[in-house]
User: Fold this.
Amino acid sequence: NIFFNNNNNLNSVLNNLIFKRIIHKTSKNDYLLMSNSQILTLIKSKNISIYELDQLIGANRAVEIRRMNLSNQLNNHLVLEELPFTNYDYEKVAGVCAENVIGYVPVPVGIAGPLLVDGKEYQIPLATTEGALIASTHRGCKAITNSGGCKTVILRDGMTRAPIVRLPSIEYILKLKNWLEDEFNFNKLSIAFNSTSRYAKLKSIKLLAAGRTAHLRFESKTGDAMGMNMVSHGVEEALKVLQIEFPELEVISVSGNTCTDKKPSAINWIEGRGKTVLCEAIIPKQIVENVLKTNIQSLFDVVQNKNLIGSALAGSIGGNNAHAANLIAAIFIATGQDPAQTVESANCMTLVEIEGNQNNAIRVSVTMPSIEVAVIGGGTSLAAQSTCLKLLNLHHLVDKLSENQNNINYENFEPGQIAQQLARVVCATVLAGELSLLAALSAGHLVKSHLQLNRKRV
Assistant:
């Protein structure tokens, strides 16, 4: 107590001695009673780390002290002036979303819509700093909604994790493959895998061999969570069973890149990951001309030559589209998804067909094999992101969710149904964005619109 009340009167040598003696006896309540300058002194002497602050003094105060410490280190007390930090609940961030937090970056959120999807209208929140993106998507929403809306289907739903295992020789790889294909053995692994969560449901295991190593691509249902942690936990338990059956089996890594998470890959494009969603709409000629400001033949030509031929020349995997990643990133940031999963979630093929004998409409569709979304966990629990989820007319479902998925009340709907609905809306939003940009390209309006909406007028 003498030290903390009079530390300015003690020389640095004595300070260090007292730090070393008392730091292990200091309780959390003692830290709460300390001034900011006293906490900073402890940080400078390396008796506590900035990483510990959330637990010692609470996440909100920790942010303020980290900012002070960083400004001192940089010898610039104005460096963080434009990075906001007040009026934010960091307790929801600590231990969930980010570490060593010093503030937040505001991103503008705009609305596109209404967008009529499967007979229901949605207002789409998009967080972006790219001028013209929201306006263009809004036009696409108008064209689709005025045409009677779009329809969606979900072909598959399963999150993947692919550990790497090594065996003594290639003969063991064959034994492992045959063992996994036996229904009884698969059920043994399923019991272990599914024991880790009431929402984990192992669907399949695909073996990909490379010499005497095997990549085992586990696929599982994960309820309304995105499910990476859930699947990883299940995989660890299943591997324990495998090591009993194959004592020679060595686990190299719980993730071996054939999952594939946050990287381009053909396997996600072909096999799917997360939700595989299709969306289509039929747009009459008059809406193509009056809303999209182009004509059917020009729009068709752009899609064929850009999305199909151009992407083929580029050797693109999953890139047979105009700008699907724009929409995925914007809606992911707005709703608290993992922005890095834009990489695989933006896999998309956009097609246009001319309808009718008189070419009086187009059928436009997007095929998206790997949309990875959640309505629980991670950033979805933050206030602003949760609000954007509720803007999507999912509020009657989202309100049933708690921060602990084990407490979800699934009385009136099935686990996973809410996340699937979000995936449908995401896919439909991509359709709207694709339709509008392709129309602008076919009419030669792209540069003009960006100069108007993506450049500040002086």
Remarks:
- The longest helix spans residues 417-443.
- Confidence is low (pLDDT under 50) at residues 1-7, 402-406.
- The longest strand covers residues 151-161.
